[in-house]
Amino acid sequence: MFLSVQNRSSEMSPSLTSMILAAWLCVSLAVVSADSEIPLYKKVGDDVVLKPGTTSGTITNIMWKHGPNIAIQWDGTEFDYYRQFKVRSRLNITNGEMTITGLTRTHSGLYTPEINDVTKNATHLIVIAPVPKPTVGKSNCGAEKTSCILTCEGNTTDAEPVTYRWKSDSDVTSSSKEQLINKGNSSSIKEFRCELENPVSQMSSDPISNPFISKPSPKEEPNVSKGLIVFVALLFVVLLLVGIHRCKAGMWFFQKESMPWQKDFWRKQRSRASRDAVSNGTTAQEKGQKDEETPMT
């Protein structure tokens, strides 16, 4: 009985060893495959040139695969373009490079070149959106303002992987989305700002003032400009009235004997000299008439 069990164990040992070797081989191939892939980040809308690496001899045929599917193929005479690569792609038959213009998210994936029927290193193209300009939000700021949570806010959809960075004045203090600040250890800091960064872009928020520092109330200064405008307006009105009175009355207001609230002030009248002349003429005429009427004795 013991001998039978021992023989059965001996029969299973080679099989177990083969399974272990097969598993190790799969892991090794996966590691080698992962190492042979070249990660390449590009921004939406950019162009990219995928390079197959060095090739010896004359190139007679080229094929680029996007995942398991053929993207571009050249058999030495004709080009074949497939799916989204029909319009935005071109192939360099001299060095085997593939160019894609106006990248979209659908262009992401694994690109594997075959030059002269030889598979080259694959490129893992990752097309992502640029990060937006972030804003700083404040929350849980107590009435006494002893602590406050700052949040770096921004829509990072299609922009991953994103890195957050906080700056206190010019010093980098944190790399998380939120930052807790305390009044005790931030009293010397004037402003805070946050940054968003991914492999293709970087944006910084506008700075915000330290919430623990009270802003001094602005000094009230005399508004010289408003007073000057009022003065000029009043002066214009006065000069306008003086001009109108001069046109209607025929003389300056200081030459009038009546006051502004009297009717004669706005009536046109002759000057004193004119009135004296008229008066003298009338007197002389009356005197002449009297002389004619007086009989001679």
Overall description:
The protein has helices at residues 2-36, 224-249, 272-293, and strands spanning 38-43, 48-50, 62-66, 69-74, 79-81, 89-91, 98-100, 109-115, 118-119, 123-128, 135-139, 147-153, 163-168, 171-174, 178-182, 191-198, 201-204, 208-209. With 297 residues, the chain is α+β, with helices and mostly antiparallel strands. Among the domains are: 36-128, Immunoglobulins (Immunoglobulin-like), CATH 2.60.40.10; 135-209, Immunoglobulins (Immunoglobulin-like), CATH 2.60.40; 236-274, no CATH class. Strands 1, 3, 4, 5, 8, 9 and 10 form a seven-stranded mixed beta sheet that branches. Strands 13, 14, 16, 17 and 18 form a five-stranded antiparallel beta sheet that branches. It has a three-stranded antiparallel beta sheet with strand order 2-7-6, with no helix packed on it. Strand 11 and strand 12 form a beta hairpin.
**CA-based gyration radius:** 49 Å
Poorly predicted residue ranges: 1-12, 25-35
The biggest beta sheet is recorded as:
7 strands, mixed
Return the average pLDDT rounded to an integer. 78
What's the number of helices?
3
Terminal CA distance reads 199 Å
Q: What's the name of the CATH homologous superfamily of one domain?
A: Immunoglobulins
- Name of the CATH class of one domain: Mainly Beta
Residue share in β-strands: 25-35%
- CATH topology (fold) name of one domain: Immunoglobulin-like
The portion of residues assigned to helices is: 25-40%
